[in-house]
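Many groups now describe folds with learned vocabularies. In that spirit, our science desk offers one protein's residues alongside their backbone shape tokens.
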Amino acid sequence: MKAEVSRIVAAASAVAALGLATACGGGGGSDGSGGDGGDERAKRASRATSAATADPQEPAAGGALTKDLLEKAALADGDVDGFTVRKMAASDIVEDSVPAKPAACQPVADMAVFTSDPAAQASVGRNLTAEGERDASLALSLVLLSYEEGGAEEVLAGLRTAIGKCTEYEHVGYRHTGVGRRTAPGLGDEAVAYGFTASIEGAKVPTTFTVVRSGTTIASFMAMDMLNGDTLKVPSEVVETQLEKLEKTGKPTG
């Protein structure tokens, strides 16, 4: 059992490494010398400047929650019984999108490393570790992503379309199979849920996502479990507690 759990931890680390590889990888024009990559970086730099001058306790332009507000809204240790909550390294949340094959799967591939098109204005993440009577083989992460007006709706619509068309894909050297819809919770303004099996360093890792929009913010939850893939789902109490805390912090309508 210990060896199997260690493989799950290693798989989770590989997912984080995938995020780093994506951030360091590049597509056309990503060297900043011109093309779409340079334009996108310029836009992000402009957004970062605007965010730096904004009141950290007020929604940014377009109704997007600031990073400070996302930190306030995100789960903290002690918020959910049975889980230890730790802050996710900022480097594990990817900003740049790297092409997936086939292209129809791009929104799914992007959200697997917590990025999107359009890009989020701000983001924060948490890693949760099961404790006590909970299954120690479960690896769970969540990210809050805030958007300008209309951006969060666009991301959910893109995911919904991709889930209907995508069955398997390759992304920065990793293969993902069995992409399919799961039952979404009736929370927030809208939600989607889906899953796949990721091939990571020779291991088959069942993975499932629940993505919920609340106003201009998206809460994306990822669960992985190599021992209980047939029953894998994001724990409902984690999703519900996070949505309650997010909505108490403020749900700007833009």
About this structure: The CA atoms of residues 142 and 149 lie 22 Å apart.
